């Protein structure tokens, strides 16, 4: 049975809704949609966003008003919903939401992640590093639980790190920038391999530049495809092996974008 999962940083869900998000949601064939940077409390959302028809909707806003926030829409009703990943520091940060879906075969755990963006030489970067360390421990526990129970696990979202040179157009100019630092890339290398997780899009598209999922709203970045691939679907090995197609739903033109990110959609045979 095919299960389709989409992840997208909406760059403010209320703003995205004014630019075309709702028609996209109505037309998508996805079974699960993971959203990041929602930037709203549930009571600030219209009912079409807070509880869209045909979906079970869950929201984890940040304590800091107007920042971060993640959501999950699922066609199937989850058996469990968890906000955060056991971290005291980041419990109310609006950066992680996780659901368990029963499915028709092995169960599936899906997480929506918005990893901090960081900024070199500032507290934002040290905060990002603390988050990465704690989240790596959660990934280890999630992987072990999936192995012990014979289930699948998938963490989707804006990881705010480009792993390889092929994952951003201007990699030479960003070697000292947050999001492409050697230590950040090494962290992902550990996750995508020894830690037992797979970058699904790269597995299906191994020898291409991109496909990019974020482009600056400034200048001609979108028109020139000068982007970054920072939105990932990261799966346990058995689930990654079941991935059949992976596409970035790039807008047809700059003026039809409803976010500075594009949806990343993967279909799995599970």
Automatic annotation (TrEMBL):
TM regions (residue ranges): none
Q: Which residues bind Mg(2+)?
A: 9, 37, 158, 160, 260-261
| Site residues, Important for catalytic activity | 231
Kindly give the InterPro entries that the UniProt entry links to this protein.
Answer: AP_endonuc_1 (IPR004808), Endo/exonu/phosph_ase_sf (IPR036691), Endo/exonuclease/phosphatase (IPR005135), ExoIII-like (IPR037493)
Question: Which CDD domains does the UniProt record give?
Answer: Nape_like_AP-endo
In the record's cofactor note, how is the cofactor described as bound?
Probably binds two magnesium or manganese ions per subunit.
Q: Which Pfam families match?
A: Exo_endo_phos (PF03372)
Where do the Endonuclease/exonuclease/phosphatase domain residues begin and end? Answer: 7-261
Swiss-Prot/TrEMBL cofactor(s): Mg(2+); Mn(2+)
Any single GO molecular-function term of the entry would be: metal ion binding
Domain of life of the source: Bacteria
Q: Secreted among the record's keywords?
A: no
Site keyed Transition state stabilizer: positions: 160
Q: Cite the PROSITE patterns for this sequence.
A: AP_NUCLEASE_F1_4
Alphabetically ordered keywords of this record? Hydrolase, Magnesium, Manganese, Metal-binding
Q: Which PANTHER family match?
A: EXODEOXYRIBONUCLEASE III (PTHR43250:SF2)
What is the protein named?
Answer: Exodeoxyribonuclease-3
């Amino acid at each position: 049975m095919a299960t389709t999962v989409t992840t997208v940083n909406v760059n403010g869900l209320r703003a995205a809704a004014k630019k075309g998000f709702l028609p996209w949601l109505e037309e998508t064939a996805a079974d699960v949609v993971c959203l990041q940077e929602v930037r709203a409390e549930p009571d600030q959302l219209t009912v079409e966003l807070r509880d869209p028809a045909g979906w079970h909707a869950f929201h984890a806003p940040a304590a800091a008003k107007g920042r971060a926030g993640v959501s999950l829409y699922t066609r199937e009703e989850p058996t469990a919903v968890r906000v955060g990943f056991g971290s005291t520091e980041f419990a109310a940060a609006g950066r992680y939401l996780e659901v368990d879906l029963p499915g028709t075969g092995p169960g599936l755990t899906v997480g929506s992640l918005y990893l901090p963006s960081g900024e070199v030489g500032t507290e934002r970067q040290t905060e990002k590093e603390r988050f990465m360390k704690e989240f790596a421990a959660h990934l280890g526990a999630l992987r072990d639980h999936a192995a012990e129970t014979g289930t699948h696990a998938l963490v989707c979202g804006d990881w705010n790190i480009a792993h390889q040179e092929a994952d951003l157009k201007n990699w030479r100019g960003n070697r000292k920038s947050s999001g492409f630092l050697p230590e950040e890339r090494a962290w992902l290398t550990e996750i995508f391999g020894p830690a037992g997780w797979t970058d699904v899009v790269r597995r299906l598209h191994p020898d291409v530049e991109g496909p990019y999922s974020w482009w600056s709203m400034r200048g001609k970045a979108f028109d020139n495809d000068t982007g970054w691939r920072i939105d990932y679907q990261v799966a346990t090995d058995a689930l990654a092996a079941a991935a059949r197609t992976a596409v970035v739903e790039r807008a047809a033109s700059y003026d039809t974008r409803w976010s500075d990110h594009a949806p990343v959609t993967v279909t799995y045979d599970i």
